[in-house]
Amino acid sequence: MRSAALALLAGAALGTFDRHADAAPRTSSLAWVRMPGAEACVDARTLALAVERRLGRVAFVPPTLAEVAIEGRIERSQEASVWRATIRLFGAGGAAIGSRELEADQVDCRAIDEQLELVIALLIDPDASLVPPGGPAASAGGGAPGAGAPVRLVQLPPRVTGAPALAVCPPAPAASSAPWRVGGAVAAVGGLGLVPGPASVGLGVRVHVAPPRGPGFALGGALWASPVVSEVPGSPAFSLAHGTLSVCPLETARGGTALSGCIGAMLGSLRVEGPALPSRFRHERLVVDLNLDTRVRQRFVGPLFGAVGLGIAVPTVRDVYFYTDAAGARHNVFQASPVAAILDLGLGLELP
Questions:
Q1: In what order do the strands lie in the sheet with 82-90?
Q2: Ordered domains of the chain (ranges, CATH)
């Protein structure tokens, strides 16, 4: 009675086809896969032979000669003791006719064998016998282990018709194809502690490269104005030019806004000149600073963006600039700050 009820339910759910009494038996092909962890379940040959014994004839032919194609698989679900078999039926031209699931809450996956052969037999021939060869007694005495286990027939969501028979499994998601972002900007820069005076200004350029994944990179430079220390004899003037190379482990973008955090090194030259006679002189020193900055870029129209950045620079060497008066006393003129601050406001283009 349980097998009969299951067969009636499977036949109603999977649908039947109007066939004339004298129509030739329908031929089918069978593709059966045991997923990882289900190697001990029924194999394709054993399942096919069991279905043909129930039908009393040869039912399976190569896919190129079959009227319908049956594709199925068996696997262990997330619940350790539940086995799930999925069966799909395709008609001529690969049109999807139906798909169903059978579940057995048993340790042994062979408990689902009888239900599998019954459902597949009904897919091939809706008029197939509900009782396997040998009668009910044979089925009860020598059937697959666990044949009395409760089995649930679960309806899957409908499939779109017209799909090719080989497109049973959904395609793997495409790999991320986010483009590289490359941009450049010109900026006005201001700083504290880089050259003498309460604040200094300059002009900078910056190029950034942001790959789809992983850290970005930035290359830039700046030329700072020359503040004159007028209270010192000879009125020395200071100027600073440097280039910066940074790696940006923080690089994220959402919509038209991008945020980056970079760490790198500044390499440049600090020059001091005394143009007035009789103390005319010129001195130049190499500057190597470590820098850390964060920056926000905002797209405006097309590739045009504005940027604001805030950073700090830490000098590796802090040279002292001084002069000695007529009495031999030393007077310090300038020494770089232990930590200098830099602010920049820029406008640039970024592609794509």
A1: 28-34, 68-76, 82-90, 96-105, 151-155
A2: 2-155 (3.40.50), 181-351 (2.40.160.20)
